[in-house]
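User: Hey, my collaborator sent me this sequence without any context and asked if I could get a structure. I don't really work with proteins. Can you help?
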Amino acid sequence: MIGRLAEIGRRSGLDAQSAGGRAASGTVHAAFVLTPLQRGQGLADCDGAWSRVGAVWRIETPGPEDLGHPAGDVIVEEVILVDESDRAIGFAEKIQAHLDGGKLHRAFSIFIFDSRGRMLLQKRAAAKYHFGGLWTNACCGHPRRGEEVAEAAHRRLGEELGIEIELAEVHSFVYEATDAKSGLTEREYDHVLVGRFDGNAVPNPDEIDELKWVEVAELQDDVLANASRYTPWFAEAIPAVLRKLKS
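Assistant: No problem. I've predicted the 3D structure and written it out in structure-token form, which is a compact way to encode the shape of the chain:
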């Protein structure tokens, strides 16, 4: 069960498991506190999930000290640098890790299917730092310093989609791709996880422009015919994911 989930301002975040979590990056503008949400539910499935004070949503505006940082601290989001065998070799600020051809770092991609076998896709927000406006798998991200892949994956499910589901790792691969618009390069050791969800997710508008469920056969055809509409890691991971699920 998710005890409390705080959704904060643009490109900032609290740990979904604790109101006292650390900010992911940037300045915290506001936190909207949610009441408990049962495992496997989306926020839209939970009546009264949002806490109210009077007739308006309760809005908190924590400072750095409320997030475990002394006032005036600059909060930096780091990624974990790895070798070709996924052994940690250091850390780097997230954007720096994507400059000048990129540095290999640990990441994860989550694929979600419903009971009908359809896959959940998200259209990345146009304002994302790279590969904005492209279709991709349901959720992805980077583990933070000291964070395991599974822990990070559950955190991002809450931050991006407002859900909590069981996940299983089925694949991993290394890839490199440069975004022509931003000039940033992804060099990732990508852990691929899958889960099942039947419900209504609540997309974070800072992360996602659109969600949709698609039939797998239709999706495979479209990725082959219109690869430029999809993120490079998604197109590369799909065949392996589907093979694993059939085996």
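In plain terms: Confidence is low (pLDDT under 50) at residues 1-69. You can pass these tokens on to your collaborator as they are.
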